[in-house]
């Protein structure tokens, strides 16, 4: 990004954010990065994208009921091929980790998640015995659930900031007053960046990445006056809950200030007002803290270091607005990814 800013070239934000989030998860899981030379992480990214696309198509067919069985037949080749390729890649990386651990006698530095799980896997006295398949499934979960979600949410935050220069400037002012002008913003600064946190919260309220969450009724029940028989698939519409005018003042308006209240009050409000971008209950997103940490530090760095502009109608790089339309599908991504200039300060 710095290179592109220096050359005054346009940045494809969706692509850059996806690379960044993939790098972060790859580093956590297996100490590798997603760059041109290191194809393992790049391969992970491609396989995750393939799985997401397939999962989206299958989910759509599933929700349409009778098409469920037909879709398994239509996508049978991909349903076999993608998991086989993921398994092959993960097996290779697991073997490399095992060999490295043997060489280091288990004392190597910089342990990643794979090293930690391998230790539990090899420990015959562990309280819970995990298998190789457990480990692989866990890594796939982390990649599928953790990369697109964080990248797309950051994308929405930047879109709203570009379209609301007053909010952008106020955020930059906050970063300057907390961090100063002589160093880069760090993770430890985040608790003091209240306006930043409010902006991210407000973005996730308006653009929840998973707008619907599925549940299956375990017994006959009534919801909102409707009879729901046992074992019915129910979709909970998080998007509508978070734009419900009964719960939120001017629900369609981007107003981060609504979250600038004391911590205690925010918790009370979130509870009462149905703030549910990460779902709720037992199956609530277990990655919410990680996601927020990543989104906060990414947005703060992008606002601290760069000026963001999308081309205007005359294509002159000034005063343009980002189109906020969402793509149709089970994930709420931007329909028109941002391509913009990012002059560095
Ligand atoms: C802004 C980013 C994210 C958003 C908006 C988000 C949202 C969600 C939502 C709405 C659910 C369904 C919850 C429910 O059914 O009640 C979910 C589930 C899940 N998320 Fe996230 N997520 C994000 C980031 C992450 C990250 C970074 C990870 C892990 C690295 C992660 C891992 C998971 C997993 C494993 C589940 C399934 C939980 C289960 O079924 O028990 N998510 N997420």
TrEMBL record:
Residue numbers binding heme: 285
GO cellular component terms, semicolon-separated: membrane
Domain of life assignment: Eukaryota
Keyword Transmembrane: yes
Subcellular localization: Membrane
Primary subcellular site in the record, as a coarse category: membrane
Record GO terms (molecular function): heme binding; iron ion binding; oxidoreductase activity, acting on paired donors, with incorporation or reduction of molecular oxygen, NAD(P)H as one donor, and incorporation of one atom of oxygen
Gene3D superfamilies: Cytochrome P450 (1.10.630.10)
Its membrane topology: Single-pass membrane protein
Coiled coil regions, renumbered to chain: none
Keyword Iron attributed: yes
Keywords: Heme, Iron, Membrane, Metal-binding, Monooxygenase, Oxidoreductase, Transmembrane, Transmembrane helix
Cofactor requirement: heme
PANTHER family xref list: CYTOCHROME P450, FAMILY 705, SUBFAMILY A, POLYPEPTIDE 25-RELATED, FLAVONOID 3'-MONOOXYGENASE-RELATED
Family: Belongs to the cytochrome P450 family.
Protein name stated in the entry: Cytochrome P450
Taxonomic placement: Eukaryota, Viridiplantae, Streptophyta, Embryophyta, Tracheophyta
């Amino acid at each position: 990004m710095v290179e592109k800013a220096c050359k005054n070239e346009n940045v494809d934000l969706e692509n850059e954010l996806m690379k960044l989030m993939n790098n972060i998860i790859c580093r956590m899981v297996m100490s590798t990065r997603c760059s041109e030379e290191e194809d393992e992480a790049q391969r992970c990214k491609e396989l995750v994208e393939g799985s997401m696309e397939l999962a989206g198509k299958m989910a759509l067919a599933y929700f349409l009921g009778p098409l469920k069985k037909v879709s398994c037949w239509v996508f049978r080749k991909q349903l076999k091929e993608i998991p086989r390729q993921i398994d092959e890649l993960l097996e290779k990386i697991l073997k490399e980790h095992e060999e490295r651990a043997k060489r280091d006698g288990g004392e190597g530095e910089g342990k990643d998640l794979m090293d930690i799980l391998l230790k539990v896997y090899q420990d015959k006295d562990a309280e819970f015995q995990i298998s190789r398949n457990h480990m692989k499934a866990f890594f796939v979960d982390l990649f599928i659930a953790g990369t697109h979600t964080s990248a797309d949410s950051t994308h929405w935050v930047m879109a709203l900031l570009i379209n609301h220069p007053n909010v952008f400037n106020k955020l930059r002012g906050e970063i300057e007053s907390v961090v100063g002008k002589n160093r880069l913003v760090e993770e430890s600064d985040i608790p003091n960046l209240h306006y930043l946190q409010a902006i991210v919260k407000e973005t996730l309220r308006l653009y929840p990445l998973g707008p619907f969450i599925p549940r299956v009724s375990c017994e006959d029940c009534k919801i909102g006056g409707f009879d729901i028989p046992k074992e019915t698939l129910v979709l909970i519409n998080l998007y509508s809950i978070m734009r419900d005018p009964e719960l939120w003042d001017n629900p369609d308006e981007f107003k981060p200030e609504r979250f600038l209240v004391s911590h205690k009050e925010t918790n009370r409000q979130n509870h009462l007002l149905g703030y549910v971008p990460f779902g709720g209950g037992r199956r609530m997103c277990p990655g919410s803290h990680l996601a927020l940490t990543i989104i906060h530090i990414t947005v703060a760095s992008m606002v601290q270091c760069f000026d963001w502009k999308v081309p205007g109608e005359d294509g002159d790089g000034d005063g343009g607005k980002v189109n906020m339309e969402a793509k149709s599908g089970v994930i709420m991504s931007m329909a028109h990814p941002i391509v913009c200039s990012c002059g560095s300060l």
